[in-house]
Specification:
It contains six helices and no strands. By secondary structure, the chain is mostly helical. Helix 4 packs across helix 5 and helix 5 runs antiparallel to helix 6. It is rod-shaped and about 115 Å long.
């Protein structure tokens, strides 16, 4: 089968076996483990096989599974509690950031509306004064462009808000 020489696994500690297996290339590990078992009696082979059996778990979520939390608690004093505190602190931090972003967006929107009001009042007053003083063409251009600009901005803003709300809902 192979020219690998098999040490007697009963003479090795689990740590030594793990070190031996880790030194082999991936394509030779299965062959090595197979050869390790060849020299064992059937009873010991089943014990070693059970000890080195592989189990695969899958967990999805921000926190470890309850079994993993218990494992952390066994290894690190109050490990599960520390992990839960870390998750709670992260959640508080994220909520705080979201609140900050929302409040700053509201303030920015209010400032934009205030500046738009100031500019439009100033432009329309300028247009009115120019119109009363006989500069009808300039007054019409300033007044008309102000109204068209504000209407365009509000229409574009509403479309953008509608797209954003649709993207968040989907």
């Amino acid at each position: 089968m192979s020219d690998l020489k098999s040490p007697n696994p009963s003479d090795l500690t689990p740590k030594e076996i793990k070190q031996i297996v880790e030194t082999f290339p991936a394509n030779k590990k299965a062959e090595l483990l197979e050869n390790l078992f060849d020299n064992l009696p059937e009873k010991e082979r089943s014990q070693v096989s059970q000890r080195f059996s592989v189990s695969i778990e899958s967990h999805s979520g921000p926190l470890p599974s309850p079994e993993q939390l218990k494992f952390y608690n066994d290894i690190i004093p109050n490990g599960a509690d520390r992990i839960m505190q870390m998750a709670e602190n992260q959640s508080k931090h994220r909520i705080g950031l979201e609140q900050l972003v929302v409040s700053s967006q509201i303030k920015e929107s209010q400032r934009g509306q205030l500046f738009a009001l100031i500019i439009s009042v100033f432009s329309l007053c300028t247009s009115l004064i120019l119109g009363l003083n006989g500069h009808d063409t300039v007054a019409g251009v300033i007044g008309g462009s102000t109204i068209v600009s504000l209407a365009t901005i509000f229409i574009y803003g509403k479309k953008t808000q509608k797209k954003d709300s649709e993207n968040q809902n989907s």
